[in-house]
């Protein structure tokens, strides 16, 4: 299976995707591209494949089965549009763009033409989330009442060190933690709970006083009144802090994503254990490859990201206006 990589300088390529892809026996990396030659040399130094500073040229010259695509957030939709225009299946990092209105026609075309698309909404693949989703599909989840997702990370100064200085530019990144971690928070609410009818967003620049925010707090109200709270930030001195919980009329789960217990109101305790944050990208990458080869739908696709990006843009509007934003009917539809 021939895989090409677009956007080698994205930090997830060297840290997650390359090691995962190189560990899959049937995968052959046939090309890698990035406009930053120094970053391309650093990331691809051990790869025995052609390197390109123009990803379009790579796609012209190299036969590819599946593309793993990355770019500054503001350029992602253009990259996705190019791949869709070539009818090339692809996996892309979130958030696939910074404006849902630009992404919408690309998503429609991909869906209409039956192109395999996948997006790195990797929180869907945590064991706790998968078990809760299974209970939902079995009709045993109950009515969601409260949802909470916290992801605090270290200083954003690490991004320039990783050849991704654009992450500190809101015109290129869309924002700070809202556009980096926010997609996971919003997507899981949509995936496990329900569509969002109202959102309130508060942001702070108090720690670094940078152009991007340090912290974003979201309050999401679902169509039936379920309340979802998300806190994402760059405020940790180092490392990461995660917490996830879901309370419904039938059960409660709270803790980290990889290990815990789902407590049901009928007295059944359902243990959860599996891969945590350190291994989730490898697991997700393998699942992308497996699903593509099996001709199965992706775990999350471009339409899922479109739904999430619509809510992210509404959150931006709320942060600017200082008021809650009501999402128009249909803005959570695929």
At CATH level 2, the architecture of the largest domain is 2-Layer Sandwich
Question: What's the number of structural domains?
Answer: 2
Distance between the termini: 30 Å
Overall strand count:
15
Q: Helical content, roughly?
A: 25-40%
Please state how the strands of the largest beta sheet are arranged side by side. 14-13-12-11-7-10-9-8-15
Helix count equals 12
Radius of gyration using CA atoms only? 19 Å
CATH class of the largest domain: Alpha Beta
Low-confidence stretches: none
* Average pLDDT metric: 96
- How would you name the CATH homologous superfamily of the largest domain? Dihydrodipicolinate Reductase, domain 2
CATH topology of the largest domain: Dihydrodipicolinate Reductase, domain 2
Provide the succession of SSEs. Answer: EHEHEHEHEHEHEHHHHEEEEEEEHHE
> What form results from the Cα inertia axes?
globular
Helix and strand content put the structural class at alpha/beta
